[in-house]
Amino acid sequence: MWTPIAEEAEQAARVLHPDGHALPRPAHCRILTIANQKGGVGKTTSAVNLAAALAAYGMRVLVIDLDPQGNASTALGVEHSSGTPSIYEALIGEISLLDAVRRSTQSPDLLCVPATIDLAGAEIELVSMVARESRLQQALSDRVVAELDVDYVLIDCPPSLGLLTVNALVAAAEVLIPIQCEYYALEGLGQLLNNIELVRAHLNTDLQVSTILLTMYDGRTKLADQVTSEVREHFGDRVLRTVIPRSVKVSEAPGYGQTVLAYDPGSRGAMSYLDAAREIVEDQERVESGR
């Protein structure tokens, strides 16, 4: 028997396999750092699901897992046990970033540079290195980007404002900040914005906060709408119209080594990330005019 849920799932499948509905690829590769030093805001979840959604629209996407926990690597089905060639070796100059790139099990156009537990000590090792703030920028050179032929690079940061996050900010042109629709949503955000301004002033003049993504939205609460209004008032058109709902499916997917688009393509979470990814693609002109 045909049901609305079945219809929604079929519509999702049509989007996930566009059949000619791919979005136009950007003229130049867009590098976005996904940052928020506050934990539990949906940073890694958003990184991997936006990457999967962009790949579904015909983009070639590289995810760089810069969090020693390796959760982005897990969600993309990429091996990240100790000894695996990873972002750690690329940062300290032992290998080329190209040697650490792995293909996700979920799409041929979804690539990942995994993080291993070795990355946990990188903050200390980087302190004494020459050009310690720009090691990732050097590893992610124009030549490497061209050889990978990627349209988007999404960098998933650890929940801190240490040297790894600074490297991510120096390597990118854009920052995407996930903000949860809950109490204290904007707590600590001022510190992140100050750090971004410092990096912009001294290390990367191209850097801009291009995108704000509201996550964990629960339409049953007044609080969610209050936070949404406050964030939109503060950040204007940089806030995506799409909000990511609080979703069991989104939470369950990483446990199966999958993004929510692979785990349950008909779910509200999957559809929301597809909508958010479309907005990011369509926002390119606004972003470029803001530089």
Plain-language structure description:
- It is a single chain.
- This protein is α/β, with parallel strands linked by helices and 291 residues long.
- The chain is 42% helix and 15% strand.
- The protein has helices at 4-16, 43-56, 71-75, 87-91, 122-127, 135-139, 142-148, 163-171, 189-202, 222-235, 248-252, 260-263, 268-282, 284-289, and strands at 30-34, 61-65, 102-103, 110-113, 152-156, 174-180, 208-217, 239-245.
- Strand 6, helix 9 (189-202) and strand 7 (208-217) form a beta-alpha-beta unit.
- Residues 1-20 have low confidence and may be disordered.
- Residues 30-209 form the AAA domain.
Summarize the structure.
Helices cover 42% and strands 15% of the residues. It is of the alpha/beta class. It has one domain: P-loop containing nucleotide triphosphate hydrolases (Rossmann fold, 3-Layer(aba) Sandwich).
